[in-house]
Amino acid sequence: MNWLETVRTSLEAIRSHRLRSGLTMLGILIGIAAVILTVGLGEGAQAQVTSAINSLGTNLLVVSPGSTTSNGVRGGAGSATTLTVEDATALSTPGVAPDIAAVAPTTSRSTSLAAGATTWTTSVVGTTPPWLSVRARTIAEGRFLTNADVTSEAANVVLGSSTADELFGTTNAVGRTVTISSIPFTVVGVLTSSGTSSSAQNQDDQAIVPISTDADRLIGGANRTSVQSIYLQATTENTLSAAYQEANQELLALHHITNTASADFTIASQQSLLDTASSVTKTLTLLLGGVAAISLLVGGIGVMNIMLVSVTERIKEIGLRKAIGASPVVIRRQFMVEASVLGFAGGLLGALLGIVGALILPHLMSTQIAISPSATVIAILTAVVIGLIFGVYPASRAARLAPIDALRSE
Amino acid sequence: MPESTEQTAAQIEVAAGIPEWPTAPIEQAAAPHSAEPVVDIRDVRKVYSTGAVEVEALRGVSLRVDAGEYVAIMGPSGSGKSTLMNIIGCLDLLTSGSYRLAGEDVSHMSEEDLAMVRNRRIGFVFQQFNLLSGLTAWRNVELPLTYAGVRRTERKERAVRLLERVGLGDRIDHRPTELSGGQQSRVALARALVNRPSMVLADEPTGALDSKSTADVLSVFEELNSDGHTIVLITHEADVAAHARRVVRFRDGLIESDSGAAR
After folding, report:
1. pLDDT digit string (tens) for B27-60?
2. Which of B112, B124, B191 sits opposite A327 (nearest CB)?
3. Which of A191, A116, A202 is nearest to A159 (CA)?
4. Measured between beta carbons, which residues in chain A are less than 8 angstroms from residue B92?
């Protein structure tokens, strides 16, 4: 009996028990759909995080102040005011750190902006001209801040595209006046939309002012020169770790710290951010995937259960087929094909359901679900393999039946 | 004895000779492969052991059935006639002795080889007919051919021709549940004949039939026999056995009498 005949016979057997076959497939179907959705969810989250981190800029190192300790209570990283504009200036001094291409000290605060009767609260970022290249941003209209703006503490501001929209609508923002903390600023430029809108921090909703203006005219006080972070851009991807070393040594020296363990700053690379973020999403995917795998296993046991019932129920048929010439190999093959057809059909429908879910769910939740073709193919193959594995035992039982016993059974 | 097994396997391949036979009329039986008898059983014993108890169902039986014979095997239940039928049908292995089926020694064959021998040498008619309820009449009839590896178009052609031969030409697409007992038995007969076996082996073929259907089926058997088919019929009904040309009676695992033994 050739394979085509075997498949035809198996399909007939499956078709003659539609409800039972359908319910068996349902177990596999749910398992496969769950696997596809969880893998998609994991990959979607991963892609989201990666693009958010990459949108920060390329070859980037971020220096953050260390934590503070006051009255025995340790604050979180970044709560100290140990990083200053002077640190940034030192790092950008020619010859100090040859592998660092650009340095951008940055402060950021949420403040209210007013343009005529319109007000809009956004983060006001104080920084220096290299910020534009370090953060890999471009100007849509007008110009970015210049060194002259910084030295003269000019009241000039560059707006993010959404901020400009909020304050001025569709009209041109360049040349208009925005009031920040009752100081009138002139809009000199508007940033190009970054295209990525991570819900946590909208890259297009901010107002950039010279760091000196920010420190002296908006913040004031004793800590005016402290910054929240210093963005460093390495010259190339390969010099990233050299740049890290140079920045680390220079800052330790500047802060008179000999023991690296008590450093009052931390330097994070994009890679380390990515690693942290992806280890979180990986754990999540693994957890969800584990649950999905268990449901797939349960589906497989369902296949075995039904196949065993089927063998018992069709004992006379098996006996007859053996009597008229079906060898044990042929009988085993027929039941294996039946089980794998159930697995395949369940897998195919499950993949379909998973893909439909991956297309619909993102509209209902604020998450991205990636549809991975390779994962889909693997999931369907897994379903077939599960059918085969759980079909082995029932098929061997059928193959081992003695034809006379099988024929006699009532 | 692996050598002889190989040889028999080769013989089966030759005997299968499927491409050659559509030219021969289906109604005719297979020509004897040689002067060899169809069934040649010598001193066969069969012992069943169920736990500690050993039951000797056959206690040294020798039987020879030549091509073209119509033999009825009779005996009360427990006489060993069903055990003999299982052994003749290659459905069960013998404990000791030898069995040559159409010249091939089948007493030590593997299960795989026995399946092939059953497929090509023996046409079974079971008491309950054992038709598959999910398949139409012609699909039931073609079943042995699928295991013999015959192409679909040829299978249908042969199955339909045999159904016409047994008078069911207008029932080829009916399922067994839509057929009467007599019609079912004729479908089972057509299935037994479809692979052009060396012998038709019928186990109580009239057990489930009324007297009219019984007469009907027996007349088909007689017709087949007169066409040259070898028929071995197991029954406990004397009037059924009376139709056979030779009657072998069993009692307590031994042949009690054999009307044709002298031949």
Report:
1. 444 444 446 889 999 999 999 887 788 888 899 9
2. B112
3. A191
4. 402, 404
Question: Average pLDDT, whole number, for chain B?
Answer: 83
ipTM exceeds 0.90: no
Q: Which residues of B touch A330 (CB under 8 A)?
A: 115, 147
- Which H helix or E strand runs over A103? strand A100-115
In angstroms, rounded to a whole number, what is the distance separating the alpha carbons of residues A116 and A178? 8
User: In angstroms, what separates the C-alpha of B208 from chain A's closest C-alpha?
Assistant: 15
Mean pLDDT, all residues of chain A: 84
Question: pLDDT tens across A362-373, in order?
Answer: 888 777 788 888
Cross-chain Cβ contact A325/B130 below 8 Å: no
Q: Which residues in chain A touch residue B201, judged by CB atoms under 8 angstroms apart?
A: none
Question: Which of B112, B124, B135 faces A323 most closely, judged by CB atoms?
Answer: B124
Beta strand A60-65 with A229-234 is: antiparallel
Distance from CA of A27 to the nearest CA of B (A): 26
Structure tokens at A240: 């990233």
Taking only the tens place, the pLDDT of each residue in A217-269 is 888 776 777 888 898 888 887 888 888 888 888 888 888 888 777 778 888 88
- Chain A contact for B124 (CB, 8 A cutoff): yes
Bridge partners (DSSP) listed for residue A120: A113
How confident is the model at residue A196, as a pLDDT?
57
pLDDT for res B15:
42
Superfamily per CATH, domain B67-93+110-258: P-loop containing nucleotide triphosphate hydrolases (3.40.50.300)
A1–B92 CB contact, under 8 Å: no
Distance of CA A205 to the CA centre of its chain: 22
Residue A8 pLDDT > 90: no
Say whether A220 sits in a helix, a strand or coil. Answer: coil
Using an 8 Å CB-CB cutoff, list chain A residues near B118.
323-325
Chain A residue with CA closest to B110: the answer is A327
- Residue-wise pLDDT for A38-76, tens only, equals 888 888 888 888 877 777 777 888 888 875 544 445 545
Find all residues with CB under 8 Å of A155, minimum gap 6, and list them: A183, A184, A185, A186, A213, A217
Note the pTM of the prediction, 2 decimals: 0.69
* Distances from the Cα of A201 to the Cα of A47, A298, A378, B246, angstroms: 16, 42, 36, 100
| Beta carbons of A404 and B91 less than 8 Å apart | yes
CA distance between the termini of chain B: 33
Domain ranges of chain B: 67-93+110-258
Contacts 24+ apart (CB under 8 A), A358-367: A358/A36, A358/A37, A358/A40, A361/A37, A362/A44, A366/A199, A367/A41, A367/A44, A367/A45, A367/A48
Residue A158 has pLDDT above 90, yes or no: yes
* pLDDT at residue A80, as a whole number: 56
Choose among B116, B120, B124: nearest Cβ to A327: B116
Q: What percent of chain B stands above pLDDT 70?
A: 86
| Residue-level pLDDT at B217 | 85
pLDDT beyond 50 at A141:
yes
Backbone angles phi, psi at B247, to 5 degrees: -120, 125
**Whether the Cβ atoms of residue B133 and residue A313 lie closer than 8 Å to each other:** no
The identity of residue A26, as a single letter, is: L
**Chain B interface mutation, best of A324, A408, A410, highest count of B Cβ atoms under 10 Å:** A324
Nearest by CB to B111, from A319, A321, A328: name it.
A328
